[in-house]
Amino acid sequence: VGLHGGQAQYVRVPLAQSTLMPIPDGMNNEVALLLGDNLSTGYFAAALADIGPGDVCVTIGCGTVGLLSVQSAIRRGCESIIAIDPNESRVRTARNLGAEATADAERAVEWVAERTGGRGADAVMELVGLPEAQRLAYRLIRPGGTMSVIGCHCTPGFSFSPAEAYDKNLTYRTGRCPARYFMSELAEGLVDNPPDLAWCVTHRFGIEQAELAYDTFAFGKDDCIKAVIEF
Fold first, then answer.
1. Beta strands 141-149 and 226-230: pairing type?
2. What's the CA gap between 40 and 152, in Å, rounded?
3. How many CA atoms lie within 13 A of 147 on its CB side?
4. Crossing angle of helices 88-97/64-75, nearest 10°?
5. Position 8 pLDDT exceeds 80
6. Among residues of the chain, what percentage have pLDDT more than 90?
7. CA 72-63-228 angle, 5° bins
8. How far is CA 15 from CA 30, 40, 79, 109, 225, in A?
9. Is residue 1's pLDDT more than 60?
10. DSSP assignment of 7-52
11. Using CA atoms, how far apart are residues 85 and 78, in angstroms rounded to an integer?
12. Measured between alpha carbons, how far is 58 from 83 in angstroms, rounded to an integer?
């Protein structure tokens, strides 16, 4: 009954014919592991935002998926990306990936205004799922801009009104990543033009250290971005 996780030598996968795909030749196991969830979701965030050449965009929330959305936006050709997260370690990583990054939301608002002549960001990717992040995204977006919301919101209402969305001609896109679709969509490009993902997997553990691995990742200990359990 139910699914009980995948930290085992063998795993039973329901509907495997439609949920799994062979790892392409030339793709290493860590890239394949990320492709199955985090990497696909980061790209999905950038795709929902319709980011393209010349755009000024923002990522709110720089966990693993948020950082991969930064990298995806850059690969899609955005002119400038600003990243916001209260965790200084994540801010440093976002900077290393090519973003202007800050833990100060008000500074990010100023940067967006400076980069766009006060117009606002063309796209905002919100990966937090809290009302404060949603309101910040609304402040940052330009009239006619696109908001891509990957953070899972559990509150009953929005942090901005329908009238405010109407006044900004806002395009609001959200949803769970169709990872299986993006696994196929991205696979060839990841082999032919692989991104540098060496920054992403920061910690490796043996199966006997699984409890420590979960604790390290869940609480961001030792600047953990992604923990991998190796067999």
1. unpaired
2. 16
3. 26
4. 20
5. no
6. 78
7. 95
8. 23, 20, 41, 45, 30
9. no
10. -SSS---TTHHHH--PPPTT--HHHHHHHTTHHHHHHHHHHHTT--
11. 20
12. 6
